[in-house]
Hints:
Largest sheet: none
Number of strands: 0
Strand content: under 5%
Number of helices: 3
Order of helices and strands: HHH
Structural class: mainly alpha
Amino acid sequence: MLIERSQKRVLTQRIESEPRQFIQVLYDPRQVGKTTLALQFMEGTKLPVHFASADLAAFGESSWISQQWETARIKLRQ
């Protein structure tokens, strides 16, 4: 069982109460719980979500962000 991240409540309130959909970027130093926070949020929401780790992005490949945005938009329309 994962320890619930304290920021989950803030993230949930921000995303679920915002009238417009925005990409949410979680950034911080390595190993502080960003992925755990994202996974906990995704488990507890009924909203469509798209998770992508920037670790997978090729250095200098600017199209990666556009690809993630388009994938998220497609999921939102489904």
